[in-house]
Amino acid sequence: MDKINGKDLIKEFSLEDALENEGREISLSACVHKVKKMGGFAFVILRTGRYLIQTVYSPDDCADSIDGIKEGCFAAVTGIVKKDERAYNGIELTLKTIKLLHNPGNDYPLHVSARKLGCSLDVNLDNRSVSLRNPAEKAIFKFQEGVVSAFREFMLKNDFTEIHTPKIVAQGAEGGANIFRLEYFEQEAFLNQSPQFYKQAAVAFFDRVFEIAPVYRAEKHSTSRHLNEYIGLDFEMGFINDMYDVMNMETAMLRYMMSYLKENYAREIAVLGADIPEVTEIPCIRFEDAVTLIKGSKAKNKFDLEPEDEVFLCNWAKENHGTEFIFVTHFPSSKPPFYAMNDKDDPRTACKFDLLFRGLEITTGGQRIHDYNEQIEKMKAQGLDPDDFRSYLESHKYGLPPHGGLGIGLERLVMKLIGADNVRRTSMFPRDLNRLLP
Amino acid sequence: MDKINGKDLIKEFSLEDALENEGREISLSACVHKVKKMGGFAFVILRTGRYLIQTVYSPDDCADSIDGIKEGCFAAVTGIVKKDERAYNGIELTLKTIKLLHNPGNDYPLHVSARKLGCSLDVNLDNRSVSLRNPAEKAIFKFQEGVVSAFREFMLKNDFTEIHTPKIVAQGAEGGANIFRLEYFEQEAFLNQSPQFYKQAAVAFFDRVFEIAPVYRAEKHSTSRHLNEYIGLDFEMGFINDMYDVMNMETAMLRYMMSYLKENYAREIAVLGADIPEVTEIPCIRFEDAVTLIKGSKAKNKFDLEPEDEVFLCNWAKENHGTEFIFVTHFPSSKPPFYAMNDKDDPRTACKFDLLFRGLEITTGGQRIHDYNEQIEKMKAQGLDPDDFRSYLESHKYGLPPHGGLGIGLERLVMKLIGADNVRRTSMFPRDLNRLLP
Q: Considering only the top CATH level, what class is A135-426?
C-alpha cells in the first residue's frame, strides 16, 4: 500500500479482500442501510459504495451498544469475517465494535432499504439525492460506469485518441432550432449539439478520435426517449473505405462491451435484471427497403423513421435474423446532416446509418464528406450558405482523409440494456423541459 | 483480429507491429508530411495519428510514380520495413506502391512540417485545424490523453465511481458573478462552475466518485492562466478523517500519473521536452504562515494568494524542500466556498487547501461540511440565504458521511508539465473572452 507522508491511503471496503480474510477482524465505514432487531441480537445491514454487508450485533461479542444506530446513520465498525451463502454477497461480519460517525437526524422520505423504491418517477427524481441511495437505483449508475469504461477501453485499444472539445460554440453542429442560446460576454453563443465539427477536424491529425462528453438538444419534446442534456459516446475514424468500416467498428465495440459488462459488472446485471445481448452479425437494411417493409399502414414519414417504425424494424430483425440490433442505411440525401456523403452509386441516398436496438435508435453515424468542393455543393443543395461554415470548412480546405464516425446516446443504450421504461431513469440528474433541479 | 460481417476491422498503423516485421511488406495510410526529392530518389515522410514514418521512394523499387504526391495529401502505401536508427522512431520503409487517396489542393498556411510552428499564439489558434497537424502541437494533446488516462485509472483502481453530472444548472456551485447565463425554455439557467454539489450528493451513495468534464467560468480576465471553459478532474471521497486524507490521495494520484506518463507517453515527453517531476512528500504550509513568509513587500491580499505569491511559494518549496509542489492550507474561513468545513481547533480558518505546482495553483480542495446545521450556520455567516440552496441541502438533511475532495484544472496541469507559457496552448480549441472560433 502507498504510504504518503508516512500515512496509509484510506481504503474503500473491498469485498474480495474481506472474503480472503475469513475468521479475521476487518474494519469498515459505511452507511447504515437497515437495522433488524431480533430477540437478543440484531442484524445491522451496512451499505458501502457498491455492496450491502450484513453484520450481526450481539452484546456478548460487541464492545459497543447499538442504541442510536439506525437507518441513515454513518458508522465505523470492526467485525470478524464469516462466509455465509445466505447473506448478501456471501459474507457476514460478527460485530466487535461499532461507532457512530454521523447521525443526520432525519428519516428518509423514501423506502431506501426496499428492494425497489416503489414511488413514481417524478417523486424519485424530485428526491434524487435520497432515491439514489436505494441499491437498485444506484446500481444503474455503477452499470453505466461499466458501459463507459468498456467503450473507452475498446477505443484506446484500437488506437483512437481521447479528445476534449468545447461545448460553448459559435454555431451548432446539427443546425435547426433545437439549440440552447447563451450570453457569452458580448457575443451570442450556443451549446453544442454534438462534437461533430471538432472530431472531424481532429481526424486530420489524430486519424482516430473519441470523446465522452455532454451533448445539448433544446428539444421541446417531453417523451420517454429524450433528454435535453445527455452524454454522447462519439468516435470518428480516418482512412475508411466506406461507412461499413464504421459500422463494423461499432459492432466490434458492442461485442467487446457486452463481454466486459458480464465480466466486471455481474453484480449490477443481477440487481437490475439487465438482459445483456449477444452481439453477432448485425443485419443491415436500406431505408427505402425498410419503408417498403413497414408500408401499408405505418410508414408515415418518407425521410426518417418514426418511433413505431423503429419498434417494427427491431421486431422484424428479431424474427428474421435472431438479433435485437439492426442497421438502417442509405437515408435520403436531401435530409440533414449536410456533412453526410452522398452515395456515389445512388446520389439520392446518403452514406448514413442508424443503429436500432430493442425498438430504439441508439446511434447515428456514417461516412462524412472529406472533399472541400463536394461539401460546398452539398451545403448549397440543402439551402445552406457555405460562408456560415467558414471555420468548419478550414479542415476540408487543407485536407481530411476519407472518414466517418458515429455518436451513441449513453443513457439510451443503458436504458435498453437494463429494460428501463424512461431515459430519465438512466440519467443521474436528468434535464428535461421542466427539470433543472436537483 | 476481430472479424465482423466476415471482414477484418481496419487497423491504425502500429509502430510495434511494424518493428517486428523487418524485411516484410506492410501497408499503411497516412498524411504526407513532407517530400524531399534527392538525386534519383526521394524521402516521403508520412504522418500517422502518432508517428512520423520515413519512406524512401525509388523508381526502381516502386510500381507507382510520386508525381502529384506532396505535403498535405493523403496516401496509401506499401513498403518493406527496414530498421534504421537515424530515421524517426527507428524505422524506414522502402516504398513498393503509393496511391493518392485525396489531394486537398491547397497549401498549408503554416509550417506544419517544421519542428516548431514558429508563428504567434493568435495565428496558431486562428488556424487551429491546421496548426494541430504540426507534430509538436498535436503531441500536447496526446500527452493530455495520458494525463487524463492516468487520473482515471488511479481513481478506478482506488474504488472511485465515475459519474456524469449536469452542466446546465439552476444555480452555480461557486456563486459570484463569473457564471454564464442561459435561456432554458421558459427558465433562467446557468453553466455549472464545478460539479461540487453533485459530487457531494453522490458521496452519500457511492462513497467515492470522480468526474472528468467541462467546467465553466465567465471570468473577464484575459491572462495566460485562465480559460472560460476547461476540463475539471474532480473527485470526492467519503469517510475521511480530515483533509489530509484528500491531500494524500492527490499525492498518490500524482505519483501514479508521473510514472504512467513516463511509461506510456515517453515519445510525447521527448517531443515536448516535458519535465516530469518526482512526486515525493509534498510540503504543507498554512496560509497564515505563507503570508508571513511572503510579507514585507509582497502579500497584498489577506484572503487569497496572488499569482506572484504562488510563484514565491513554489520557489520557497524548491529551495527548502527540494520539490516543485506545495500545499497551502487553512485559508480564512470567512472566504468562499461556503461548503468548506471550519477548522475545529481554529475556526478562523477553513479545512481548505490549494496545491501549487511550478508557480501556479493547479488544485483547490478540502474537507466539506457534512452536518446540516453546521452548513446552515456557515451559509448565514457568509451572508447567504439557506433557502436558496434547498435542493443542495437535501443531501445534508438525509445524511452525508464526513467527506472531502478536490478539483484539478487539466489544462493548467498539462501547461506546467510541458512548460507552456499560456494555458491556451493546452486546450485543443480554447475559449476565452474573445475566442469562440474555431
A: alpha beta
